[in-house]
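FW: tagging you since you asked about this chain on Friday. Here's the raw sequence from the shared folder, copied in full. Didn't touch anything.
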Amino acid sequence: MNARLLLPAGLGLILLSNAAALAGVWYNRQGEPQSRLLLSERELRRDWEGPHRENSGLSARLSWRLPELSELPGDECSDQRGLSEAQLRSVGALDTRRDSARGWAVLELDGPAYRQSVQRAEQRLQQAAERARQLPDDQRLQDAAQAARKALAEERSRESRLFLIDVGPDADALRQRYPDRARHAVLPGTVNVWSACRVGGEWHRSGSVTLHSETINVPHHWREALAERIPSYYDDKRAAFTAELSIGQRFEPWLSAVRIAENPATASDASDNAR
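HL: got it, structure written out here
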């Protein structure tokens, strides 16, 4: 190619790529969103920015949890959380030739999975407190009760209320099963077998999901307000805010509204910065 044409050709390719990206964003945000979830500082974390932070941008990631599996045999398996074998099998992740498969995941906000997690924390505190009451001189039991009390407080006020509750091979089928668009979001991902233990000659497997659209860009007009409020994975700084997360036609999330609490202790005093 003539050297004089290289620069115009390169610029044209860049413009074409940018136009395609903008067209994708435009299409994703057309019509009614697939889901709208009202998140808080409990469900959004600052994305890992590496050692060379770019000051001009800010991105976040969803902070979600896996439910406990009641079918795992007691304390024999070291990890008691994850997707069940039936869920893994539904997307082909237990195929003998592989231990992962593409599929769709369901995230549930402040629903039965979260309430069950709170109830289990309450039960653990009751059990630990009863053991500590029976043996008041056993410091180990007293410490365990105190730890259970702290865990319950964290569960009620600080831990994420967003849980990955189900997976499947078809997004439409999952949406029919979970129709509440203010509580459930359906997102594409890769389902992985991540834990296995053998008890009495029988294998017990659990799994998780790597979401394909988990990084969320924070729009410029909210970056300053959220920069010091979105907590990092490696620290525990919290400041109250709520953010409406919309899932579009391409199942890509974006922040569609943000509310900053003037007083972190009282969300009722918030001023609405929603667009």
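FW: The first strand starts at residue 35 and ends at 40.
HL: agreed, and Confidence is low (pLDDT under 50) at residues 264-275.
FW: great, closing this out.
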